[in-house]
Each structure stands twice: as structure tokens, then as C-alpha cells.
Design a protein that fits this description.
Helix content: 40-55%
Order of helices and strands: HHHHHEHEHEHEHEHEHEHHHEEHEEH
Number of helices: 16
Bound molecules: pyridoxal-5'-phosphate
Number of strands: 11
Largest sheet: 7 strands, mixed
CATH superfamily of the largest domain: Type I PLP-dependent aspartate aminotransferase-like (Major domain)
């Protein structure tokens, strides 16, 4: 391509993005399409000859990109929303254009230095000592796999490993346990209490029972914010138990970890600094585009001990201890420059803005909880925690089956109404609506309008139940 045609295509793509992002509040929070309709729009075979780049861009803008959840819409409250900063988006574009491979110091020293800096910020937010270190990952799932590899290796790679977590833990941890070679029947899901936190007595009982039968406990996984209710396991007590028993403690803070930049978050996550490893997701509550998470390890040596593999063809890349090769800390060799987006956004807005943005989610969730508590139509289903509120329509006088039918109806109607996007969860078998408020552009008006809609749909849904 000539520089001029590159510039034209780049400018058209930028315009498209800026138009999309600045109009988000007026767009629907979700759009999608069935397979056949998309297949009809998109040619299946690769073309032998190309066509003008603007035409391709226009087709993608018309036939592909609009059919997606707008996870960054101010009224997208489903699953775990994500609302990337513009400097973060631009950073990803730069990383692709500069064609950075953040694998080794030799290949990319600039972004390796940024990764050291960003990882050190996270070390500080966690309250970890100087011995700690880590790397940026594609997300929480990769961080979980890498954490459990490190735990397994630290335990001497036993033949019959077991791993412990609560029944509220994210599926990513169960998958990670399978990846590191734990048999399905040796992944222990400890029942949680009414507060959705792990039952410590049961955890200890199972560890002892497993040891007595010749199994080797290699890791306990705690949640610093479950994705269902935002519940936080008793981190300090779990750290105490794991230290006594000599078992690796991994904290899955993919959801709640970045609340640590606020004082309220630091109080809620007290004890996290005693974990052997922590996974966090910057593409969730740190306002970055996908994919960026992090794995932090209290003693960084464990990571390199687990992942460093000599490679003849990379022998020139070994620069020594002060020049780490991030590929030696995890499962990827070729890696994009994830640190760039975090660094550029924090430099642009400053930590005060990030703190205020995280605090905004925490505060809005508490206001939403007060709304639910004072509404005769709504019932809180779990205490609000880290930006998540679980509730349901329940005006009284209905049995459980009728309530589930009514709430499913409400959820479907919210979906078709297109003002907002909500999702649901199952709380020990009970259907609940769920608001997850993380977006830095979300206002109280957005939350209130959504709850008003649920109330009015709830009135209709309960008629005849
Ligand atoms: C608590 C928790 N752990 C792990 C994950 C998996 O993270 P990722 O989707 O970044 O792989 C998620 C994703 O929502 C999560 O909420």
C-alpha cells in the first residue's frame, strides 16, 4: 500500500471508531444475528483477487462488527462489562503497527521495560514485597493456568495432585486445574456458606482426608470477587491455613483485583498480600481493551523456575538477571505488548482518575442496592459486593416456581426492550437478576432507568403468576 492509501484507510477506521464510541449511549446495548443471516452477508471462500480496502472496511463495519454485545455501553450490566480507554485502544493499534513481540529483552527492550514498570505498579497495589514479580497475560484464564503450573512445580510435580476451591469459583480455575493434570475427581469444590464464601472448616477437613489417602494437595484457590455475587473469600484466614499446611494459595482476583486502587477495595481484600500468587484482569476493572490480565507471584523465582526452557535458537536472547525475558515467565513465546496500553492510559489520565472510575462502580452498586431495598417490587438476593448486585422481582405472595418464571420473563423483556443489558445467575439454585457496574461512563441515571424498567416489567410479569 502507498503511504497515502494507508493514511486514508487508517483515518477511515479511526472515524468509524470515534463515531461508535461517542454514540454508545444512544445505541442498543446488544446486537447479534443468527448464523444463516451472517453467512448470507459474508462470502465463505477467500477471494482470488482483492478489492478496494475502503470497501472491505465498509463491509466489516456493516456486516460484522455491529453484531456484538456493546460491553462498553453505559447500560451494559451483564456478565463482566469492559470499558476501554481511548489511549488503550490506540496503544493496541500502535503495538500491532510497530509489530512488537514482547517475548525477550533482545527483541523488545522498550516494552519489556514498560512491563516491568506496570508489573511493579501491580506489586505495590497488592502490597507484595520486592521479591514479587509477574507478567501480563491474555486474561484471567491464562493467569490461572500459569499460577497452577507454578504451584504444581513448587510442590515437586506430584503424581496425584489435588486442588481446592469453593463452589463459587470461576470455571477458569477448574479448567486450569485440568490443564495442569489434576483429575476431575480431584478438583475439590468446597461448599460455600450463605454468604457465598468458602467453608474453611470443610476445606481443612478435605485437605487432611486427601493427605491421609495418599493424595498431594498442591493449591488452594480463593476468590477476590466471584463473578456471580462479587463475594470475597476470607483471604487472611486462607493464607494462614495454607501457610500452616504448606500449600500454595492462589487468589483469583480477575474480577475484583483492581478495586485495590481504592481504599475501600484495599480494606475488602485485606490479606491478599499473603497469597503465593494473584491473577488480575486489566480488561475488566482497569479499563483496557481485551486481552490483558496479569499473574503476580509473591516470590518471582517460582515463575521462572516453572517456565524457563532452554532453547538453542534463542540463546542470543539471554541478557542476564536484570533483563528478564517475559517469555520465561509464562506459556507464550510470541506476545503482544500488553504493557503499552496500561502505561499509556495511566500516563494520560493519572491514577486519581482510575481510582475515581473504580470508586464510581462501587458507589453506584451501593445506590442500586438502596433502590432495591426500598422497592416493594424487588428483593435483594445477596449483599452488594465489588460492583455486583443480585436481586429479583418479588412483590410477595408467589411461590419459588412462579418467581423464577416471572424473573425469566423480566430478563427476556429487558433484552428485547434494548435500553440496557442484564444477565442472570443461579444462587444455590435460585434464579437471580444481576447488575455488574464497572463502566467508567455509567451514571446513576443509567442505573436508575434500568431498575425502573425492571420494576415496570416486573409488575406485568407477575400478573397471572
Ligand atoms: C472471577 C473470574 N475469574 C476468571 C475469569 C476468566 O478471565 P478471562 O475471561 O480474562 O480469561 C473471569 C472472567 O470473567 C472472572 O470473572
Amino acid at each position: 500500500m502507498t503511504p497515502q492509501s494507508m493514511r486514508q484507510l487508517g483515518a477511515a477506521a479511526m472515524d468509524l471508531l470515534i463515531e461508535r464510541i461517542s454514540g454508545l449511549g444512544d445505541a442498543h446495548a446488544w446486537d447479534g444475528e443468527f448464523r444463516q443471516a451472517l453467512q448470507d452477508r459474508l462470502p465463505l471462500a477467500p477471494p482470488e483477487n482483492g478489492r478496494p480496502a475502503e470497501e472491505v472496511l465498509n463491509q466489516v463495519a456493516r456486516d460484522v462488527l455491529p453484531f456484538a454485545a456493546r460491553l462498553d455501553h453505559p447500560r451494559f450490566f451483564g456478565f463482566v462489562p469492559s470499558s476501554p480507554t481511548w489511549p488503550g485502544v490506540v496503544a493496541d493499534f500502535l503495538a500491532a503497527g510497530f509489530n512488537i513481540n514482547s517475548c525477550t529483552w533482545l527483541v523488545s527492550s522498550g516494552t519489556s521495560q514498560l512491563e516491568l514498570i506496570v508489573v511493579d505498579w501491580m506489586r505495590g497495589w497488592l502490597g507484595y514485597p520486592k521479591t514479587a514479580g509477574g507478567l501480563l497475560t491474555s486474561g484471567g484464564s491464562a493467569a490461572s493456568v500459569e499460577a497452577l503450573v507454578a504451584a504444581r512445580e513448587a510442590a515437586g510435580h506430584p503424581q496425584s495432585p489435588t486442588i481446592y476451591m469453593s463452589d463459587q469459583s470461576h470455571g477458569a480455575l477448574k479448567r486450569a486445574a485440568l490443564v495442569v493434570g489434576v483429575r476431575r475427581e480431584h478438583i475439590r469444590l468446597i461448599p460455600s456458606g450463605d454468604d457465598f464464601r468458602i467453608d474453611l472448616a470443610e476445606l481443612l477437613r478435605l485437605i487432611r482426608k486427601d493427605r491421609a489417602s495418599g493424595l498431594v494437595p498442591v493449591a488452594v484457590c480463593a476468590s477476590a470477587g466471584t463473578s456471580s455475587t462479587g463475594a470475597i473469600d476470607p483471604l487472611a484466614d486462607m493464607a494462614e491455613l495454607c501457610a500452616r499446611e504448606g500449600i500454595w494459595l492462589h487468589v483469583d482476583a480477575a474480577y475484583g483485583g483492581f478495586s485495590l486502587v481504592t481504599e475501600a477495595g484495599r480494606e475488602r481484600l485485606a490479606g491478599i498480600d499473603r497469597a503465593d500468587s494473584v491473577g488480575l484482569d486489566a480488561h475488566k476493572w482497569f479499563f483496557q481493551p481485551y486481552e490483558v490480565g496479569a499473574l503476580m507471584v509473591r516470590n518471582a523465582k517460582h515463575l521462572e523456575a516453572a517456565f524457563t526452557i532452554g532453547n538453542d535458537v534463542l540463546q542470543d536472547t539471554v541478557w542476564g538477571a536484570n533483563h528478564p525475558n517475559f517469555a520465561d515467565r509464562g506459556l507464550q513465546l510470541s506476545r503482544t505488548a500488553r504493557a503499552l496500553k496500561i502505561w499509556m492510559s495511566v500516563q494520560t489520565f493519572g491514577m486519581a482518575a482510575f481510582r475515581a472510575a473504580v470508586q464510581n462502580g462501587l458507589d453506584l452498586a451501593h445506590r442500586a442496592e438502596a433502590y432495591v431495598a426500598s422497592s416493594p417490587m424487588l428483593e435483594p438476593m445477596a449483599p452488594v459486593s465489588l460492583g455486583i448486585l443480585c436481586f429479583r422481582v418479588n412483590p410477595g405472595g408467589h411461590d419459588e416456581a412462579a418467581l423464577e418464571r416471572a424473573n425469566r420473563k423480566v430478563l427476556a423483556q429487558v433484552f428485547w426492550d434494548e435500553l440496557a443489558f442484564l444477565s442472570s445467575t443461579s444462587l444455590k439454585g435460585v434464579f437471580a437478576l444481576r447488575l455488574c457496574i464497572l463502566n467508567h461512563t455509567t451514571t446513576w441515571e443509567d442505573v436508575r432507568k434500568t431498575l425502573d424498567l425492571v420494576v415496570s416489567l416486573g409488575e406485568q410479569a407477575c400478573v397471572g403468576e
